[in-house]
Amino acid sequence: MKKRMSLSIVLVLALLLAACGGKEETGGEASGSAQAGGGEKQITIGVSILNLANEFTATLAKGIEEKGKELGVKIIVNDGQKDPNKQIQQVETFIAQKVDAIIFNPIEAEASSPAVDKAKEAGIPVINVNSVTKSEPDAFVGSRDQESAQLAIDYLAERLGSKGNLVMMHGHLGQSAEIDRTEGAIEALKAYPDMKLIAEQTAEWNRDKALTLMQNWLQAHDGQIQGVFAQNDEMGMGALKALEDAGVKQDIVLVSVDAIADALQAVKDGRLDATVFQNAAAQGGGAVETALKIIRNEPYEKEVFVPFELVTQDNVDQYLK
């Protein structure tokens, strides 16, 4: 009888210990996953970025990740590497992973559109950030790229007395920022009939390609160029090196877009005449906030625009970190 009672006590204690162990495991698992909004299941957002090798889009991704961390959301960032097909594959993977939303920084307006279509067919909300697609997402967070071109052309006109010959470096052809900045520049130039666009070509957002392109233009249009509009700072910095190497920077006004770190420093040093600030952190953070509103069925803005700002040597200190 005593033996039986002893065995019963041992069994009860074993069961109690096992139950406690199970509770500890479950509790540990819950605390290990970020809980957004206090009590709701963990929210996961997939992100496909145009190209993480580019400083601006890398800053955009960082803004998304930091806002996700702040709000307790799991963020999965993929690098599209300037390949629309790769982006489509990344979105297909996000669909298979059953993410709650996708933040999409498209490479091309048309070629990247199937990714948006696939996500929406799967019932996953899509927020385009910084650039647009032909296919309509659930929301867009970014800036009006025509505005950046307007600021750049107006600045060139001010510096050149509204007359002179310009060249324009395009970004990746077919990408919405390239399309809109081109349209914005052409429209802005209508106000300055004595400013002529004598050459325009893509350097694909790339610093080295912009260096080569600027060198070619200096040879083909020797002494004829008074201003340069580069559609982003990577190209602007490449053009700047070509102008400095040729010893002609003092004769040519150069403005670009994005306000990346070394462009801001070049403005501070008086080497680059101006850049146009595009707030990557605000765009990235805004995309996460919009995604959460959609996921939670809360009211949200279908379009959120962050203004551009002209940066010159007079105000550059407020942008330098």
TrEMBL record:
- Can you tell me which residues the record assigns to a coiled coil? none
User: By its UniProt entry, which InterPro entries does this protein fall under?
Assistant: Peripla_BP_I, SBP_2_dom
**All copies of domain Periplasmic binding protein, residue ranges:** 45-298
Signal sequence interval, chain numbering: 1-22
Carries keyword Flavoprotein? Answer: no
Cross-referenced Gene3D superfamilies: 3.40.50.2300
Task: Name the major location.
Answer: other
Q: Which UniProt keywords apply?
A: Signal
Domain of life, per lineage: Bacteria
The similarity annotation says: Belongs to the bacterial solute-binding protein 2 family.
The protein's name is Substrate-binding domain-containing protein
Originating species: Cohnella hongkongensis
